[in-house]
Specification:
The complex is a heterodimer of chains A (about 475) and B (about 325).
Chain A: E1 3-12, E2 15-25, E3 30-34, H1 41-48, E4 56-61, E5 64-66, H2 71-76, E6 79-82, H3 94-99, H4 110-124, H5 139-152, E7 157-161, H6 169-184, E8 188-193, H7 196-202, E9 205-210, E10 213-218, H8 224-232, E11 249-259, E12 264-273, E13 277-282, H9 288-296, E14 303-308, E15 311-312, H10 318-323, E16 326-329, H11 333-337, H12 344-352, H13 361-374, H14 390-399, E17 407-411, H15 419-434, E18 438-442, H16 446-452, E19 455-460, E20 463-464, E21 468-469, H17 475-482
Parallel strand pairs in A: 3-8, 3-9, 6-7, 7-8, 13-18, 13-19, 16-17, 17-18
Antiparallel strand pairs in A: 1-2, 1-4, 4-5, 9-10, 11-12, 11-14, 14-15, 19-20, 19-21
Helix pairs in contact in A: 4-5, 12-13, 14-15
Chain B: H1 3-31, H2 39-57, H3 60-83, H4 89-107, H5 133-138, H6 142-160, H7 162-172, H8 174-179, H9 184-210, H10 224-234, H11 239-259, H12 268-273, H13 275-286, H14 292-299, H15 303-316
Helix pairs in contact in B: 1-6, 1-9, 1-10, 1-11, 2-3, 2-4, 2-9, 2-10, 3-4, 3-9, 6-7, 10-11, 10-13, 11-13
Classes of the chains: A alpha/beta (about 475), B mainly alpha (about 325).
Chain lengths: ~475, ~325
């Protein structure tokens, strides 16, 4: 099926999210949509998949204008969208997930659904058990499930929104292979991403968005500098990797054993020198999160010892960890990091621990303005945190950290952020290192782990590798370890 | 088993029928993502209204119809204020619970102590003559039979049918359900009204069958609705488990009555009230596996014991519909 979007306009209040976008995609093409956060790519995809209605403009399928009022209209027209956070029902079985929203009689035939699921997944080498529960799947498997479901419903056009976030390298390879196969069968694949490497590696054609407009299209062979310039309007490059002089050991982890109802980690050992950056890599759910939360004092280890600057912290409450100079920045910014409904200023008041019963508003606003400037947050002191973009929320979180810190723990510090914000955030973090703060962070982005870490720990199903020297490790080696080879 | 015990147990099945209706009605409503807290007052109001209708018209059927209609209407208020007005379900439900209760005492004054009709017993031919089972299950009235059917139908609907899966979906991930083609808010209205109508049947079941008549504040129905809410949670939003909870509660009440003569030292009030704290205790036990300190305590036990306990706890553990009480808006 051929898709054409003609003169699409969409505004949210004063923001012109899609400004006269026209794009045409032929059957069998993998179309990349590239742009930083807020460039308007998601808006356009939501228009095509029926989530929102365009203010004006047409959608043509095989030359015929269609009206798509809801997401279920879209799938009836053969348009299926795979959302960044998979839209499924975690506590339910895979087979029930397939069934919800599928038309048919009162009593569904589960056996038949299981059978067609198995046949379908055999084509792509997926291996999902129809009787398994969705909340036991990894993000990558949930994506596979959603792709299978959309194909099962007869999708001819598949839209993928940032599909490579949060999945492992091997799952990514499998996803790309699947998408190529689907394109060969004549499907239209629309691949939305801000990751240059992914888009360049996969797509037959790339359309670049900036500030609501389609700024240009490119065909292979791609010129990366050219794409970056179209995305940002200027060229940015990664900082030179700087290695800081390390000093004495600051964090000592000996024979640490962690256990919860998902994972068991036995006898993990790690010594972090001050000013050092340790990256934790591994598939989601391999134990790195539990390890980080134990370092933060949020989980109690079942055995082993944890020392900061020689002081034993094992078994102490979270408060003692904080007082010792440990800070934890969680991945779920809105749930664990910030308090929706409170303004930036109010967050600073809470994190500063002002003395006295009453709030000194004036002082608070002054501090808040100062921080907003230093941390380059796009917002006002009175702006509520939920109104900030992801990158600015992350900046606000960093702005709230105390100084000095001995150990800074970060979970996916740049997930969902555009390149500019990521680089900026890491420059701030490196500044911290210069002030002798140790950093331990989790990331699913291998490039990020390799580029910013001094040493790397790989997690696989609760097993922890020896610390690897980041400078002497390649993406391939890391990928192998993450996949469980070499333990 | 002697005959007295058997009749007593049959009585439990009969007295539990309204609790079954209320708990399953609330289960369906909460599965859709709406908490209807008004049901305690609702049971009182419909008990009074159903009785008054039947006394006035002489028709039992009308009594139940009025009960169901009032139940549906009051639940519609909860649904409307939560879906259309985006108000707190807890606040609205709570106020309605108090209002319905007082309304029942106030409007029920003229019908206090009147004698009214009673739903007749309807033994099922052949089945009623089976020893033990017949006395227990098949010498009841039509309401008790309906409660059996309701349990089965509700269970099959929620877990085995397409619309039932969607019902689970809208309470779990309404945004996803919307993408799959559900009109989330319309379905929430429908299930809140159906659930409310079922709760509304529970009132007349008391005043026309289990505890015939209307005696105002001493009718003894105040608190049943709160227990039904607890049973909904205890039942893990599963109609079968909810029914089990309802039977357990009535069994505890019955034990209180039976044990009273043999325990003269214990004030009768204690035995009357005992089922309520016992229910709360059961709830705590059932959901103990949800707490982190249990996980931590378990971690210290030997591997095999730990695995066994963890398995039992997981089987008992229940999680509420993820979107319970959260309004849904599509973009």
């Amino acid at each position: 099926m051929n898709v054409e979007l003609v003169h699409i306009h969409k505004s949210f209040g004063a923001v012109h999210a899609n400004n006269d976008i026209s794009i045409s995609i032929k059957s069998g093409v993998i179309q990349g949509i590239l742009g930083e956060n807020g460039a308007g790519k998601s808006t356009l995809m939501k228009v095509l998949s029926g989530f929102i209605q365009a203010d004006s403009g047409d959608i043509l399928l095989d030359g015929k204008a269609v009206h798509i009022g809801t997401p279920s209209d879209a799938i009836k027209h053969g348009i299926g969208m795979l959302h960044q956070d998979p839209l499924d029902f975690p506590p339910m079985k895979i087979v029930d997930n397939m069934l919800i929203g599928h038309d048919g009689g009162l009593f569904p035939n589960r056996r038949e659904v299981s059978k067609s699921l198995k046949e379908l997944q055999a084509q792509f080498g997926f291996n999902l058990d129809p009787e398994a529960y969705v909340d036991g799947l990894t993000v990558g498997e949930r994506q596979q499930l959603e792709i299978l479901r959309l194909l099962w419903l007869g999708a001819q056009i598949l839209i993928l929104d940032e599909p490579t976030t949060g999945i492992s390298a091997s799952q990514k390879a499998k996803l790309f292979e699947t998408l190529k196969k689907l394109a060969e069968q004549g499907m239209v694949i629309i691949f939305v991403s801000h990751k240059l490497e992914d888009v360049e590696g996969l797509c037959h054609k790339i359309a670049v968005f900036r500030q609501g407009s389609l700024v240009g299209e490119a065909a292979p062979p791609y010129n990366t500098d050219n794409l970056v310039e179209m995305m940002f309007g200027k060229v940015i490059s990664l900082d030179e990797k700087t290695r800081l002089e390390n000093c004495e050991p600051a964090v000592e982890v000996t024979n640490l054993s962690i256990e919860d109802n998902r994972i068991q980690i036995r006898n993990a050992n790690l010594t972090v020198n001050c000013g050092e950056v340790i990256g934790l890599a591994g598939m989601e759910g391999s134990g790195q999160r539990q390890f980080l939360r134990t370092l933060a004092g949020l989980m109690r280890p079942v055995g082993g010892d944890l020392r900061l600057g020689g002081k034993r912290l094992t078994g102490k409450p979270y408060h003692s960890f904080q007082d010792a100079g440990i800070s934890y920045v969680p991945a779920s910014r809105m749930e664990e990091g910030l308090i929706p409904g409170l303004s930036i200023t109010e967050h600073f008041i809470l994190s500063e621990g002002q003395s006295g019963f009453f709030i000194d508003r004036e002082k608070a606003v002054t501090i808040s303005r100062e921080r907003i400037n230093t941390f380059n947050i796009k917002g006002e002191p009175v702006t509520r945190v939920e109104a900030l973009s992801g990158g600015n929320q992350q900046r606000a979180l960093l702005a709230m950290l105390r100084t000095p810190l001995r150990l800074l723990l970060l979970e996916h510090p740049t997930r969902g952020l555009d390149i500019e914000s990521s680089i900026w955030i890491w420059s701030q973090l490196k500044d911290r290192c210069r002030q002798k703060t140790c950093i331990v962070f989790i990331s699913a982005d291998l490039e990020e782990v390799l580029h910013y870490s001094d040493r790397i720990l790989v997690f696989y199903n609760g097993k922890v590798s020896q610390p690897l020297d980041a400078a002497a490790t390649t993406v391939d080696q890391l990928g192998q370890l993450i996949g469980g080879k070499g333990f | 088993m002697d005959n007295n015990t058997l009749v007593g147990l049959a009585g439990i099945l009969a007295s539990a029928a309204p609790v079954v209706f209320a708990a399953i009605g609330e289960t369906i409503t909460e599965r859709a993502g709406i908490t209807n807290l008004s049901i305690n007052g609702l049971i009182l109001l419909t008990a009074m209204a159903g009785f008054a209708t039947s006394v006035t018209t002489g028709s039992l059927l009308l009594g139940f119809l009025v009960g169901a209609l009032i139940g549906a209407f009051v639940s519609l208020i909860v649904a409307f204020s939560s879906i259309a007005l985006k108000q707190s379900q807890v606040a609205v439900g709570f106020v309605l619970a108090l209002m319905c209760r007082d309304l029942s005492y106030f409007l029920g004054n003229p019908y206090m102590g009147l004698s009214g009709p009673r739903v007749p017993s309807l033994p099922i031919p052949v089945l009623a003559d089976i020893p033990v089972v017949g006395v227990l299950f098949f010498r009841q009235d039509i309401l008790v039979y309906s409660s059996y059917i309701l349990i089965a139908v509700a269970y099959i609907f929620v877990f085995k049918t397409r619309p039932g899966l969607m019902l689970q979906g809208i309470g779990e991930q309404p945004a996803t359900a919307y993408v799959r083609g559900a009109n989330v808010n319309r379905l929430r209205y429908i299930y809140t009204i159906i659930g409310g109508a079922l709760v509304g049947m529970a009132g007349p079941m008391y005043s026309l069958s289990v505890k015939v008549g209307w005696k105002g504040t001493i009718t003894g129905l105040d608190g049943i609705g709160w227990i039904a809410l607890a049973i909904t949670i205890f039942g893990g939003w599963n109609p079968l488990r909810a029914a089990f909870g309802a039977y357990l509660f009535v069994l505890l009440q019955w034990l209180g009555l039976v044990l009273q003569p043999s325990l003269p030292n214990i004030p009768s009030q204690v035995l009357q009230v005992a089922p309520f704290p016992l229910m709360i205790l059961t709830l705590l036990l059932v959901n103990i596996g949800n707490s982190e300190w249990v996980d931590r305590t378990l971690a210290g036990l030997p591997e095999e014991v730990r695995r066994f306990i963890a398995k039992v706890l997981r089987a008992m553990r229940t999680t509420p519909p993820a979107a319970l009480g959260i309004p849904f808006e599509n973009e």
